[in-house]
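Fold this sequence, please.
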Amino acid sequence: MSSIKHFISESVKKVEIDEFLWKEFERAGYGGVDVSRTPLGTNVIVYVMRPGIIIGRGGTTIKNLAKVLEEEFQMPNPQISVAEIEVPELNAHVMASRVAAALRRGVHFRRAGFWALNQIMDGGALGAEVIISGKLRTERARSEKFREGYMPKAGDPAIKYVKKAVVHVQLKPGIFGVRVRIVPPDIKFPDRIEMFEKAVSPEALKEEAISEEETKETKEVEEVDADFEDEGDTGDVSSRADKKA
């Protein structure tokens, strides 16, 4: 029971760290965080579009961040490294933040949803889904879904391969939620089978053609020999019959 509580508390702490980093570094194009424990401390990898903002002049920002993680989130000896996001359109956190920023500027939710969906699919994703929920048109909250491509919903592929992010934004009607799911282009699903043709060199093709011609010639010779044997046998039988007569 204590181990279950430990894992739950660690997961809650990671979510709190994620929300804190997103609020602090939304301007830098925050795209998620990976936290892993090591014997020497805690490795923290922060994914952003503009690493210079999170590092700061002379590394002051990243040093302050390490101090905050150690004091407020009880993270032992945090070692922070910053990774640049190469394709922002394939990062769920970045796209959810962009949709939230568009809604904050007053863009219609359908326009923002379709724009994000087109951006993700143009980036090369196998599938994408954008869900915007809140008081979209009336006082009653509902959700609008924008979906394209291949998107697994259950099983191991949905847990392992689908990149997910949820962002909330405060607007005049209330709080809007933006959920983004992305299937990266380099994912190989177990139910997808690809057929490949074997590449054959020109020399191998020539050898194969020569062997086919040789087999044809040997077959023709064998057929001719068989015909001659048949004719010889018939001749012997007729001659024996004449002698007996």
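Strands lie at 30-38, 41-48, 78-84, 127-134, 142-149, 163-170, 175-183. Residues 89-183 form a domain with the Ribosomal protein S3 C-terminal domain fold (CATH 3.30.1140.32).
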